[in-house]
């Protein structure tokens, strides 16, 4: 402190320390003490800086600015000075001055993330968007070395989520505007299963640092999981503008486009990436999926074969070929897949998904070759591997279905009275996968008044949110929760469904199809919130349907299908629930029996259209000429006229399907009239199973 005596210097330091402690909560007192020190030691830099800090906190940035600029001339190497000058300049709208101060600060302290993030804000305000983006990225890079954040990330990756969360919450009290810590906390909460809370945090992280590419990437994935597709596309478009170009950004946008049904646009992205770098098996596979959905079978086959040529162990690409249904894998393909299994055998389970996909693929190839015993063995191995990876509790699921069955009785429905959104737009096609639902969808979407969309998750999400109110203790049981819904509540829920699904409607056709098969669980809810919607139950012979579902690997969502006992119990729950709803609301659901549709297509189509109140149109009988995108496992089968060769295909395996017969015996015996029998009071009595 220059010529100031040691005793005076010590006193000044103590006084400045006391003033600094008052800065955040009592800036007026801090200013008084700093000015008192300046009276004793005029121009003292620490006191000047403290006085300027207090002035800004008192809303007097205009008074602080000239003093800071004077102070900065002889002290260009003091980071705290540039930090304060930047804040003051930004508050006064002097963005260029703030940018200059922050560029000096980040040159001096490049490892301090806060400086980069503040610089990004200043640059963005000045209209320098790309420079701001780069500053945000530099801030993220600097934060990656922060010991607190590193320790929290290690705890998260080790599965110590409580520890990681506690560390970040403590940090958040000290650094509430930390985008990297906020995003990391969002990921932890997502791993804990609370996607809604995670979304709030990750959105906040992106708002704080718009150039934080990893946070925006994660946000897009969360939005996809939440089916907020238009928002996901907006963020994907923004991510594509990043100065740090990455193929991953293109792939993420393509995945959003696929979910939106924009297959052509997604295919354009894949083709552009492959033109730049053709040796990308995953991109070839993705392109194959798009081409398959668009009905370009030969081009899809070419893409899948390019994928397996580049990566012979790529199980999903092999399965995608097999899953075209109309493609037969030959002896060379079978040898290649067997070789791939040998290659993967030494990888300690690291490629489990490739392995089970290969078993499903070999099952299909050997089935087509007529080797049914070997085919069943591979299907069985693939299913066992897949079943070990997923969670499905048939008892819990059965209890949920029973609760819904007991709720939506005729007296209950009558007591609830009118309510719900009166729109007639939706047509729900429900049932089990592999029951002929895609065929029904293709027939109806060939009508000029009906638009086909896809398997929409929105009704299941609404139902899941209502069930969560029971699970979280707000209501004692499902029936009480449903009974609490007022007519206005039901109208609001119906309108919410229509709003959520609007993004998938691309034409002015008055009706649209939601082909999510699992919605059979929610027919009672559908009837209450959309009383004028139509519900079509697509049903197939129980053994044929269950066996076909068991040997089909679904990309997601059908956790019951990988065990013969599980899928039989699921079918039994479905039949019982639909029978009870038929009794409670006669005529509400129209049933399409697959075998009858195959035998008498014109008659079944006529009855179907009459239920919907639609006039007959010849295009419904030439449905295979409809060029709309089809995303289900039956996509290629519905692009040709109805065939009958699959109706009794299960009989090749009858001797090995004992679990299905044990559980479904009475349902098999009465099919397809089991519903009439149940409605007449003849209970379905099923053989006991080990897990009943």
Automatic annotation (TrEMBL):
Q: What is the lineage of its organism?
A: Bacteria, Pseudomonadati, Pseudomonadota, Alphaproteobacteria, Sphingomonadales
Record keywords, A-Z = TPR repeat, Transferase
GO MF terms held by the record = protein-tyrosine sulfotransferase activity
> What PROSITE patterns does the record point to?
TPR (PS50005)
Entry-linked Pfam families: Sulfotransfer_3, TPR_16, TPR_19, TPR_8
Q: Does the keyword Aminoacyl-tRNA synthetase apply?
A: no
Decide whether keyword Transferase is in the record. yes
Tell me what organism the protein belongs to.
Answer: Sphingomonas adhaesiva
Ranges for the TPR repeats: 281-314
Q: What is this protein called?
A: Sulfotransferase family protein
């Amino acid at each position: 402190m220059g010529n100031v005596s040691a005793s005076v210097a010590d006193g000044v330091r103590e006084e400045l320390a006391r003033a600094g402690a008052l800065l955040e909560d009592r800036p007026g007192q801090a200013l008084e003490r700093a000015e008192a020190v300046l009276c004793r030691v005029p121009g003292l830099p620490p006191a000047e800086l403290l006085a300027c800090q207090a002035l800004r906190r008192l809303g007097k940035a205009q008074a602080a600015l000239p003093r800071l600029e004077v102070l900065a001339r002889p002290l260009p190497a003091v980071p705290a000075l540039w930090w304060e000058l930047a804040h003051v300049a930004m508050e006064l709208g002097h963005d260029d001055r703030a940018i200059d101060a922050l560029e000096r600060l980040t040159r001096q302290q490049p490892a301090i993330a806060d400086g980069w993030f503040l610089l990004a804000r200043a640059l963005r305000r000045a209209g320098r968007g790309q420079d701001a983006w780069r500053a945000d990225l530099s801030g993220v890079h600097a934060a990656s070395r922060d010991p607190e954040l590193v320790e929290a990330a290690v705890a998260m990756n080790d599965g110590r989520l409580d520890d990681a969360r506690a560390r970040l919450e403590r940090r958040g009290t000290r650094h509430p505007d930390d985008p990297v810590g906020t995003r990391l906390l969002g990921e932890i909460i997502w791993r804990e299963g609370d996607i809604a809370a995670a979304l709030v945090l990750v959105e906040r992280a992106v708002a704080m640092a718009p150039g934080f590419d990893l946070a925006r990437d994660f946000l897009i994935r969360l939005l996809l999981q939440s089916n907020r597709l238009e928002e996901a596309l907006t963020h994907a478009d923004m991510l594509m503008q990043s100065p740090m170009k990455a193929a991953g950004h293109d792939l993420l946008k393509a995945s959003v486009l696929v979910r939106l049904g924009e297959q052509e646009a997604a295919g354009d992205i894949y083709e552009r990436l492959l033109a730049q770098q053709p040796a990308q098996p995953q991109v070839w596979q993705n392109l194959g999926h798009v081409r398959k959905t668009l009905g370009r079978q030969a081009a899809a086959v070419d893409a899948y074969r390019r994928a397996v040529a580049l990566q012979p162990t790529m199980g999903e690409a092999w399965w995608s070929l097999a899953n075209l249904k109309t493609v037969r894998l030959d002896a060379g393909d079978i040898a290649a897949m067997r070789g791939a299994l040998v290659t993967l055998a030494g990888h300690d389970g690291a490629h489990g998904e490739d392995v089970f996909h290969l078993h499903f693929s070999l099952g299909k190839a050997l089935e087509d070759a007529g080797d049914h015993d070997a085919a069943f063995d591979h299907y069985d191995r693939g299913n066992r591997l897949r079943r070990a990876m997923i969670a499905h509790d048939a008892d819990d699921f059965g209890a949920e279905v029973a609760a819904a069955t007991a709720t939506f009785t005729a007296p209950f429905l009558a007591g609830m009275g009118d309510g719900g959104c009166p729109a007639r737009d939706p047509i729900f096609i429900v049932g089990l996968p592999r029951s002929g639902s895609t065929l029904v969808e293709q027939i109806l979407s060939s009508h000029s008044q009906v638009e086909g969309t896809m398997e929409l998750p929105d009704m299941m999400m609404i139902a899941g949110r209502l069930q969560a109110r029971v699970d979280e203790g707000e209501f004692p049981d499902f029936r009480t929760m449903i009974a609490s819904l007022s007519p206005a509540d039901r109208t609001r829920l119906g309108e919410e469904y229509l709003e959520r699904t609007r993004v998938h409607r691309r034409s002015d056709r008055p009706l649209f199809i939601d082909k999510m098969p699992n919605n059979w669980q929610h027919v009672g809810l559908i009837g209450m919130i959309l009383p004028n919607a139509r519900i079509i139950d697509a049903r197939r012979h129980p053994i044929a349907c269950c066996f076909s579902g068991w040997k089909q690997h679904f990309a997601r969502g059908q956790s019951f299908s990988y065990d013969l006992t599980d899928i039989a119990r699921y079918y039994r729950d479905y039949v019982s629930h639909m029978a009870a709803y038929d009794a409670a609301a006669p005529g509400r659901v129209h049933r399409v029996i697959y075998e009858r549709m195959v035998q008498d297509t014109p008659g079944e189509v006529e009855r179907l259209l009459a239920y919907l109140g639609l006039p007959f149109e010849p295009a419904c009988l030439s449905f295979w000429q409809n060029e709309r995108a089809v995303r289900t496992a039956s996509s290629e089968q519905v692009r040709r006229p109805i065939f009958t060769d699959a109706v009794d295909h299960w009989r090749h395996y009858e001797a090995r399907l004992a679990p299905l017969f044990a559980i479904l015996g009475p349902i098999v015996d009465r099919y397809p009239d089991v519903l009439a029998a149940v409605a007449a009071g003849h209970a379905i009595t099923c053989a006991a199973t080990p897990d009943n």
